[in-house]
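Feature request, filed as a ticket because there's no other form

It would be nice if the structure record came with a short human-readable summary line next to the tokens. Right now we just get the raw output. Example of a typical job, pasted below so the devs can see what we mean:
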Amino acid sequence: MRPIIALLSVVVLVVAAPVRADAEPADLEQRLTPEQLHATGLDTLSAEQLALLNRLLREDTAKALATAGAEVADAEAGERRAPGP
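Raw output as currently delivered:
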């Protein structure tokens, strides 16, 4: 069971790494260079479209963090209930 907890912990850290607890995740304009924005076509979006995309990404990140945290908590709870060797 410990490998599962370790794996889930790594997933949480990887997903949460770009997100500081005291700040919102950086918007795409701050994450990508002008060249990357152009290569992806994001520089052609209107301000409203870009704001919506940033909001959707923040919401998706929040959901992923909540799910990963719940899975880690469930795995840890299951390990505490499992009989020892």
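Something like this underneath would help us a lot:
The helical segments are 2-16, 28-31, 34-40, 47-81.
The first helix runs from residue 2 to 16.
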